[in-house]
């Protein structure tokens, strides 16, 4: 069992790294837009159009709520086990989808490499460690998967709408202009299937950890 003081330090470091990765990535996008004399507002819209950024923002928010002690309705909501666990599923999808589908498409260097590693590799692992050690177990049910799916489904609808209006897509597997709607929906179905499978694994781990804890207490 990890001591509370060690847990707090771990959560603090993870939260700082989460916000650092997001800050670096935002700076790089805005700086690129500035050098091209393009709209910075457009840069912000581009920044928040990525599932990676949105999911890492949720991760950093949950970790910050766990780190701080000031009570609020938002803090209580994010620290509910089913909410924190839903964020765990989303960030796991980020890490696995990037490694399987996107990592080979580019080779970032310098600060972009640091941001890339933080957002796609480091934070998924740190957040899983937080979920394993700090999130209360035993509250997850299969029905929670339906609630967790609202986020990726809403994101997919946003991507299609934004792409239709601006002809810009954040990910190549969602590029309707190149792949067409049938293939994009097939790709999305595959990702959603992966999301559900990861969710089922997480629920299974939740139940296993409860049983393991009960056996140790006997």
TrEMBL record:
Transmembrane segments: 47-67, 79-102, 122-140, 147-172, 184-205
Keywords, alphabetical: Membrane, Transmembrane, Transmembrane helix
InterPro entries the UniProt entry points to: Pr6Pr-like
Protein name per UniProt: Integral membrane protein
Source species of the chain: Pseudomonas vancouverensis
């Amino acid at each position: 069992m990890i001591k509370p003081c060690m847990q707090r330090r771990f959560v603090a470091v993870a939260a700082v790294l989460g916000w650092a990765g997001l800050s670096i990535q935002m700076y790089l996008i805005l700086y690129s837009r500035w050098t091209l004399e393009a709209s910075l507002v457009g840069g912000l819209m581009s920044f928040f159009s990525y599932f990676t950024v949105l999911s890492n923002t949720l991760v950093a928010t949950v970790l910050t709520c766990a780190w701080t002690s000031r009570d609020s309705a938002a803090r209580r909501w994010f620290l509910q086990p089913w909410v924190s666990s839903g964020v765990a599923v989303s960030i796991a999808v980020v890490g696995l989808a990037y490694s399987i589908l996107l990592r080979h498409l580019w080779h970032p260097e310098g600060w972009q490499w640091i941001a890339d590693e933080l957002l796609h590799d480091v934070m998924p692992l740190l957040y899983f460690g937080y979920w394993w050690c700090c999130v209360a177990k035993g509250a997850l049910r299969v029905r929670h998967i339906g609630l967790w799916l609202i986020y990726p489904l809403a994101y997919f609808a946003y991507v299609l709408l934004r792409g239709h209006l601006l002809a810009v897509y954040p990910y190549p597997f969602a590029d309707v202009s190149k792949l067409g709607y049938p293939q994009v929906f097939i790709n999305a179905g595959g990702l959603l299937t992966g999301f559900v499978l990861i969710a089922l694994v997480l629920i299974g781990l939740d139940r296993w950890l409860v049983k393991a804890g009960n056996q140790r207490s006997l």
